[in-house]
Specification:
Elements (H helix, E strand, L loop, with lengths): L4 H15 L4 E4 L5 E5 L2 E7 L8 E5 L3 H7 L6 E2 L9 E5 L8 H15 L2 H9 L1
Antiparallel strand pairs: 1-2, 2-3, 3-4, 4-6, 5-6
Helix pairs in contact: 1-3
Length: 126
């Protein structure tokens, strides 16, 4: 099944943004792309080969952002018990899915929840 070009473009923007954050690195545990800081995942990017629906999973500790993310079409608390800790899976392909800009805001919030203070200070200094 082909991935919608608009969803792929959004995914690429979010990935580029995530990897541009201070100390961020991409790894491929379980064959899926994740962005990590300080050896901890701050965004699950999944795969972009069309084998699974395109989406991102972020940790949103702000109640308003968390509730907003869950209103996105097809969004749900992340599996494996991660949802209880504020992780939300947001699909990128449904009509009305969040903009790349909003997704990047959520990625930054997720990063801030996980990154060490010195890297958050680097980010704030930019």
């Amino acid at each position: 099944m082909a991935v919608a070009a608009s969803a792929l473009k959004k995914w690429a923007k979010v990935r580029e943004f995530a990897l541009g954050l201070p100390g961020a690195a991409e790894e491929f545990p379980w064959g899926e792309s994740v962005a990590k800081v300080n050896k901890k995942v701050f965004v699950f990017l999944g795969v972009d080969d069309g084998s699974y629906p395109l989406g991102v999973t972020v940790k949103l500790t702000d109640d308003t952002a968390h509730a907003h993310a869950l209103t996105a079409p097809g969004a749900e608390p992340a599996g494996y018990g991660l949802g209880k800790a504020g992780w939300v899976s947001v699909p990128l392909e449904p009509e009305g899915s969040p903009s790349a800009e909003l997704l990047c805001d959520w990625v930054e919030e997720s990063y801030r929840a996980i990154a060490p203070k010195r890297l958050i200070a680097d980010l704030d200094a930019r």
